[in-house]
Design brief:
The protein is of the alpha/beta class and 460 residues long. 47% of the residues lie in helices and 22% in strands. It has 4 domains: 137 residues, Response regulator (Rossmann fold, 3-Layer(aba) Sandwich); 96 residues, PAS domain (Beta-Lactamase), CATH 3.30.450.20; 78 residues; 119 residues, Histidine kinase-like ATPase, C-terminal domain (Heat Shock Protein 90). It contains 12 helices and 15 strands. Strands 2-1-3-4-5 form a 5-stranded parallel sheet, with helices on both faces. The chain has a 5-stranded antiparallel sheet with strand order 7-6-10-9-8. Strands 11-12-13-15-14 form a 5-stranded mixed sheet. Helix 4 links the parallel strand 4 and strand 5. 28% of the residues are buried.
Length: 460
């Protein structure tokens, strides 16, 4: 109905019936255009022109029969509705006509003409729906044949039912039968089923399928969903993408990362060894000194070097080279210092509390943090607990407002001398702490009574 006017082809060679049907159609469909075909040449011209939207044909024609007309129409115009009138047809004829695509079958009598209106409307609606469905199917088949994705439908048990041409190409086969064998062998295991604990309205999590080929192997990324057909059967619809090249690149990247990790571990190991050599040389040099103050300076230098060596040792042993277990590092560093200064853990207790709130303490932060903790713990062990006094030291790392972290190193000892200015310190140790806090882009604060507490706040 391109011009919005209904065009009907009426195939009947009985003038009285033609007039009766025409009156009924014109009454029910004002403005309808009816083309009559009472002879074969008229029918053939109408078929060539193809201007009709629907055909009404008699079953009994002098030059043919309604079944022949029906089949001729459906061969050329499969979506054009055909309604058949008959006064002589049997039930067997009706069944045969329906199998050939007949839309409705009406007994030719005045009392049955009332059905004509609803039959025409339903035939037009069904014909248009079928045309659109087939158009959509053609477009979909064309699209599925052009995309570089395999599309398939399978039974939940793993039997492949249908697939598009790209899926056959991905499997390197040319028939659905061969594809069924490959699918059952390589894809069925692990396929989503109606018993899988998934929301059936969404695709399953993608899975990787490895398929051996004569020249090597190929990898496919497969996504599936369980669907229920109109007949109530459950099927599995899926997509398959060839990710072989991507997989090769991933494997190359993983190999490169493993090689890089091995090189970094070796680097950390060598740096640690070199720092230990420097520490040993300082120790040997200090033994030749007689001035106790100079010997102490050498010892503090050794501790600073050792704090850096310990970080590289932790990185060498770590599973994740991007971060350091700072809590274990503090415990290990404190143990070394306690031993160096002859302090027992029973006399001075150490509490370590680390909560980085997910922030990574990498080597860029770990080295200055380690040196700061080393300086502040060393000062506390040397000066906070004189004459065998007992006490407690605390090292705490915690989140601070503004996407910051806060390091607190505190003790409950005798405290620092009054008037000390942490922003302009006189001792090398506190000068180093102030410089390292700036390196962390942080701020340094000191609370001197009771005991001493140093707080460094720095960005995560």
């Amino acid at each position: 109905m391109a011009d919005d006017k209904l065009h009907i082809l009426l195939v009947d060679d009985n003038p009285d019936d033609v007039e009766s049907i025409t009156r009924q159609l014109e009454r029910e469909f004002p403005g309808v255009e009816i083309e009559r075909a009472s002879a074969p040449e008229q029918f053939n011209r109408a078929m060539e022109a193809g201007r009709f939207d629907l055909i009404i044909t008699d079953f009994q024609l002098q030059w043919s029969d309604g079944l022949a007309a029906l089949r001729a129409v459906k061969r050329r115009f499969p979506y054009r509705p055909v309604i058949m009138f008959t006064a002589t047809g049997t039930q067997e004829v009706a069944v045969e006509a329906m199998k050939s695509g007949l839309d409705d079958y009406i007994v030719k009598s005045p009392e049955h003409y009332a059905r004509l209106r609803s039959s025409v409307r339903e035939g037009l609606r069904r014909g248009e729906a079928e045309r659109r469905a087939d158009d959509l199917q053609v477009r979909l088949d064309h699209l599925l044949g052009r995309i570089n994705l395999g599309v398939f439908r399978a039974e939940p048990g793993g039997r492949l039912l249908e697939c598009n041409a790209p899926f056959l190409r991905l499997l390197g086969v040319d028939s659905i039968k061969v594809a069924q064998d490959v699918f059952a062998r390589e894809f069925a295991a692990g396929m989503v089923t109606d018993k899988s604990p998934l929301d059936k309205s969404v695709m399953s999590p993608a899975r990787e399928v490895r398929v051996p080929f004569p020249g090597g192997e190929r990898w496919f990324l497969v996504e599936e969903v369980v669907v229920t057909t109109a007949s109530g059967q459950q099927m599995v619809d899926g997509l398959a993408e060839d990710i072989t090249e991507r997989k090769k690149v991933d494997l190359q990247i993983q190999a490169a990362l493993r090689e890089k990790e091995a090189l970094l571990r070796e680097l950390f190991h060598r740096v640690k060894n070199n720092l230990q050599v420097v520490s040993s040389l300082l120790n040997l040099q200090s033994e030749a000194l007689t001035d106790e103050q100079a010997r102490e300076m050498f010892r503090e230098g050794r501790h600073r070097i050792h704090s850096m060596a310990l970080i590289h040792e932790r990185l060498y042993q770590a599973k994740d080279l991007a971060r350091i277990d700072i809590k274990q590092y503090v415990h290990d560093l404190a143990s070394e210092l306690f031993f160096a200064y002859g302090v027992s853990a029973e006399r001075i207790r150490l509490a370590v509390d680390v909560n980085t709130d997910g922030a990574i303490i990498d080597i860029e932060k770990a080295v200055p943090l380690g040196l700061i903790i080393n300086e502040l713990l060393t000062n506390a062990l040397k000066y906070a607990f004189p004459d065998g006094r007992a006490g407690e030291m605390t090292v705490r790392i915690e989140p601070a407002p503004g996407n910051m972290l806060k390091l607190t190193v505190a003790d409950d000892g005798v405290g620092l001398p009054a008037g000390i200015d942490v922003n302009d310190p006189a001792t090398l140790g506190l000068q180093l702490v102030s410089t390292l806090a700036e390196q962390l882009r942080g701020s340094l604060e000191a609370r001197l009574q009771p005991g001493a507490a140093f707080i460094i706040t720095f960005p995560k």
